[in-house]
Amino acid sequence: MVIRQFHPADELAVIQLWMHCGLIVPQNNPRADIERKLWVSPELFLVGTVGEEIVASVMAGYDGHRGSINYLAVAPEYQHNGYGRALVEHVEAILHDCGCPKINLCVRTSNQSVIAFYQRLGFVCDPVITMSRRLVADQPFELVVEYEEDVTNSH
User: Fold this and answer.
1) Which residues form the N-acetyltransferase domain (predicted)?
2) What are the contacts of 133-136 at 24+ separation with CB within 8 A?
3) Are 73 and 103 in contact (CB under 8 A)?
4) 12-62: pLDDT as tens digits
5) Which of 17, 32, 44, 134 could form a disulfide with 60 if both were Cys (CB 3.0 to 4.6 A apart)?
6) Alpha-carbon distance values, 13 to 9, 53, 130 (Å)
7) Please, are residues 56 and 69 in contact by the beta-carbon 8 Å criterion?
8) pLDDT tens digit string along 88-127?
9) Confidence (pTM)
10) Distance between CA atoms of 152 and 148, rounded to whole angstroms?
11) How are strands ordered across the β-sheet holding 45-50?
């Protein structure tokens, strides 16, 4: 797998990857999330490719205090090949070089296989509660049919 920076032309393939991995939830519009990331540290939005195919992604961040990992995804048919680990290690190296002392991430408590993945990489469950407050309500992501049609028509 080759790791490179996300390019705007990758949007469709990345959203399809996220859909395939079950990362898209109603309260987060993936197009809006991508647009936001391209405004803030776009160099920390990475994809993994095998040949020309995007098979993995990760959005990382650093606010000067803590790093973060979001949207880590590996296509199910490519999982268990070390690609997720490679992306995490790549992001860790970048963040370390920026002076980042710690990485935080959020995983739904119901997603035990992902929690186990991160634990194998040395992440621990901190005794904290994650709290949030939405400042902007995303428009619902209703372009799934459009994307599916694009894929169908391109073959």
Assistant:
1) 1-148
2) 134/27
3) no
4) 999 999 999 999 887 889 999 999 999 999 999 999 999 999 999 999 999
5) 44
6) 8, 8, 30
7) no
8) 999 999 999 999 999 999 998 888 999 999 999 999 999 9
9) 0.85
10) 6
11) 2-5, 45-50, 53-62, 67-74, 103-105
DSSP 62-128: E-SS-EEEEEEEE-GGGTTSSHHHHHHHHHHHHHHHTT---EEE---TT-HHHHHHHHHTT----S-
Summarize the confidence of residues 75-100 as an average pLDDT.
97
CB 56 within 8 A of CB 1: yes
Domains along the sequence of the chain with CATH: 2-121 (3.40.630.30)
CB 75 within 8 A of CB 56: yes
Give the total residue count for the chain. 155
Closest alpha carbon to 18 in 143, 134, 152, 149: 143
